């Protein structure tokens, strides 16, 4: 059984969608990644930071699912990272209303000793210098390093981000961010340019339009499951990344063929995440529901065509 290290924000989120509005609820990239990865029963640890204002019961949600939280620092006198966003009517686009780094601003991550030889490292969304520090603490070269990031860090720490991109095997990035990073509108050209920056594999997430996996000349496409209702897309990208990383840590097979399955697992888990506000749906998710939806995915994409 593989080991997975996850770094990313553990946060308070305030979200507004056409269906409703929340006060501060549990959020953060590492939270969504951890909840998704916990579905695979791998040894997973989250490295992050919260303030003294963060409820213990939120941390318990992760440890109850056997996610190691010894690498989550609690700064008693500090405030937790806070993000607020408002979705447009189509739910595909959103405005960030606030990003308050708080305790994240001075965070020095510490990877738990037992995880310094993890086979998979998931560098979730936060400052690229923190992502780099986690990589530098690994005593054994990980089999797979996966990076997720967003426009916020491209705007304020582009050089540091490029230095991390150089060191990773896989990047997961959404379509608009791939365009921003490369200055290319075509996602095929953007993926090629990102390959040249370092990663062997490039995953471009297209929200409700699925995800593309690029490797050399190979491209694989997984649609998103057509859902009747999308309630809140927050965390879908992180949940995708958590499913992707958790599946690879479990199977320990890093071939292109297996990465395709990792994309399917990531997409499947993300399809649940969007059904309720924040982490709500991921908290009650059961194995049999995942299994059923994986089958739906298979039916959605499988066809037999006779080519003469
Ligand atoms: P996603 O919808 O997958 O892009 O992820 C949303 C989650 O990312 C929210 O729970 C936020 O707390 C977190 N988040 C938002 N902005 C940032 C940022 N600049 N750095 C790290 N995490 C962030």
Structure in words:
It contains eleven helices and 14 strands. It is α/β, with parallel strands linked by helices. It has a single domain, classed as UDP-N-acetylmuramoyl-L-alanine:D-glutamate ligase (3-Layer(aba) Sandwich). The chain has a nine-stranded mixed β-sheet with strand order 6-5-1-9-10-11-12-13-14, sandwiched between helices. Bound molecules: adenosine monophosphate. Adenosine monophosphate binds near residues 99, 125 and 238.
Number of domains: 1
User: Any guess at the CATH architecture?
Assistant: 3-Layer(aba) Sandwich
In the CATH hierarchy, what is the class?
Alpha Beta
Number of strands: 14
Shape: globular
Count every helix, treating DSSP H or I runs of 4 or more residues as helices: 11
Share of helix, binned: 25-40%
Tell me the radius of gyration.
18 Å
CATH topology: UDP-N-acetylmuramoyl-L-alanine:D-glutamate ligase
Distance between the termini: 45 Å
Q: Tell me, rounded to a whole number, the average pLDDT.
A: 96
| Biggest β-sheet strands, sense, barrel | 9 strands, mixed
Query: Which quaternary structure do these chains form?
Result: single chain
Spatial strand order of the main sheet: 6-5-1-9-10-11-12-13-14
What structural class do helix, strand and pairing data support?
A: alpha/beta
């Amino acid at each position: 059984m593989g080991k997975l290290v996850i770094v990313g924000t553990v946060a308070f989120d305030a979200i507004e969608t056409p269906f409703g509005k929340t006060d501060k609820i549990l959020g953060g990239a590492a939270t969504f990644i951890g909840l998704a990865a916990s579905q695979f029963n791998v040894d997973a640890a989250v490295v992050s930071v919260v303030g003294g204002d963060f409820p213990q019961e939120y941390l318990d949600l992760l440890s109850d699912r056997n996610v190691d939280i010894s690498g989550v620092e609690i700064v008693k006198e500090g405030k937790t990272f806070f993000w607020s966003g408002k979705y447009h009517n189509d739910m595909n686009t959103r405005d960030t209303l606030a990003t308050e780094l708080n305790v994240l601003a001075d965070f020095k991550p510490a990877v738990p000793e037992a995880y310094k030889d993890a086979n998979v490292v998931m560098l979730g969304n936060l400052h690229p210098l923190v992502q780099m520090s986690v990589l530098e603490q690994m005593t054994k070269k990980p089999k797979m390093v996966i990076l997720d990031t967003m426009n916020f860090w491209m705007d304020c720490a582009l050089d540091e981000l490029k230095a991390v991109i150089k060191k990773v095997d896989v990047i997961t990035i959404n379509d608009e961010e791939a365009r921003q990073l490369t200055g290319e509108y075509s996602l095929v050209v953007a993926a090629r340019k990102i390959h040249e920056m370092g990663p062997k594999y490039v995953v471009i997430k297209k929200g409700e339009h699925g995800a593309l996996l690029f490797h050399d000349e190979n491209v694989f496409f997984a649609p998103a499951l057509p859902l009747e209702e999308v309630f809140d897309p927050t965390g879908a990208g992180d949940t995708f990344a958590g499913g992707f990383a958790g599946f690879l840590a479990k199977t320990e097979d890093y071939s292109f063929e297996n990465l395709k399955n990792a994309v399917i697992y990531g997409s499947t888990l993300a399809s649940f995440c969007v059904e309720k506000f924040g982490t709500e749906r991921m908290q009650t998710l059961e194995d049999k529901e995942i299994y059923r939806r994986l089958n739906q995915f298979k039916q959605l994409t499988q066809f037999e065509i006779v080519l003469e």
